[in-house]
Amino acid sequence: MNFLEENLRVLQKFHPEVAEKLSAVIRPPEQAVWVASRKGPLTVRRGGIFLASSFDPVTEATHAVPDWGSKVDFAVLTGLGAGYLVEAVVARHPDLPVVVAESDPAWLLEVLSHRDLTALLAHRFLVFCLGPDPRELGRILDLFSCRTIEILSWRPLTNLEPGWHKALEDQVAQAQARAGVNPATYAKFGALWLRNLRKNEAFSREVRPLASLAGLWAGCPAVIAAAGPSLGQSFEWMKRHRKQFVLIAVDTAWSALSAHGFEPDVLVVLDGQYWNARHVDRTPPENTLVVTEWTGPPRAFRLAPGRTYVARSSIPFLRRREETLWGTLGALASGGSVATAAWSLALLLGCREVAFAGLDLGYPRGQTHVPGSQFEEATHRQARRFAPAETLGLGLRGFFGLFQRPSLDGGTILSDARMDLFRDWLSASVLSRPDIRAVNFSTIGSVVPGLLVPPLDYGSSWPSILPRAPQSIPALLRSDATPESPPFDALRTLSAQAACSQAQKFWGPEVWDRWSSRALATLDRFPSPRSRRALEEVITLALSWEPFWNTDAKSNQFSSRNKTTGRE
Known about the structure:
This protein has 568 residues and is of the alpha/beta class. A hairpin with a 5-residue loop joins strand 1 and strand 2. Helix 1 (4-14) packs across helix 2 and helix 1 crosses helix 5. The model is unreliable at 377-383, 389-400 and 553-568 (pLDDT under 50).
């Protein structure tokens, strides 16, 4: 019996995009041999390998499905096979979204021609990912809230296409990292950011809005100095051309730059942690501008009074309050990496050509930072007989979760999920600005799509740049206005649509949709208590900032004392 016509009818109804893709597929000759198993249901042999049990494929698939409980957001099957495994997953976990990733759309047609899958195809929680590009799986997962993903691989399929399955596993790992980075970051650093915010707003003086630097070096080339191991390779070129570019230094690179006599035009200090603040132990030169944000380390606000510029907070839930108290500060998208923030700064300054030095986004030759950086020096200061610097250095890159990624020298480089995220964010930002020529001086770091390899005579035609100081800009003064309180009471009701509607009205779609769009899309596409949990977590995160709003009057008192005495 041929089941294709009825299967396609149901597929058209519940998965029209998949049916449309299949309509363009030209079926090759018979790809497999279908035979009855000893228990009766069909099984199939492909490439000489049985894709399901020749004795009892239904029971075999049922026993292969784990009990994942309610904590899993998504399940990914790395191939359709004969279809029994996905049927077993759906039967055991009917409210779990399941993605079936199949590299060959023609194989789906093959299975639909031999098995009645109408009940499976009508399942609302089923998603198909068809085609040979494994990145399509990442794009699908990025649409939804899926921090916890279980991969269910089927050994016969893994043996047939090992490369495909490894690529899918990488996509799942990266999707999980992207989905979990914001909640994990806020859980880890939220309290620190709020402490820094109160200190910096109350006792800082002579700070100015970042927006006032817009276009300061319009048309000038810029070099962004990151702290990767390859930074030292660029020192000779930087010394030879120093008068021809704007030097933007990230905080982690400052110690190494200072030791080699470089004076940056701008020093970017964003990370609020104490040990990261130690990167700026050295006082910057008198002409260096310091760029930070309110949640940055308090040390950053003491480095250069009168030359400190504050960006909009990286905490979206505080931006409405910032606008009320401080006006427009100017945005500095970081993408998780200070190098990405420096790239955003170069664009704001008006630079039309940007070169990265020390941007490795990995661990070339097992190294983590340029010699002379605080991280590298700390391993030597803390080294002991039974804990040498080499051992301590391992802790900077971790012992687990390391991957091989393509490197600029044609080989591979050690990387991890965090570096993969930074690379993806920076690459996406660079590719979105084709009008800006961006190059990477590193020859041993990770390949970043969008960054070019500089020619041998790079920079030789640049004219000299005359130092250009910002015009007289008044210091920021805190407004006496009382910020309107967010709709915390509405959020506590957890009536999803009404609460989210009020939250979007207050914070605006730029903030609220960024945090809730995946959770709302998941609840809409896969309605269940499992999916609702993701939205509740977003709402809980928003509620976590309520204590700060309730104690803001104390911060106002500090600010008033600052205005009166001028003390830091």
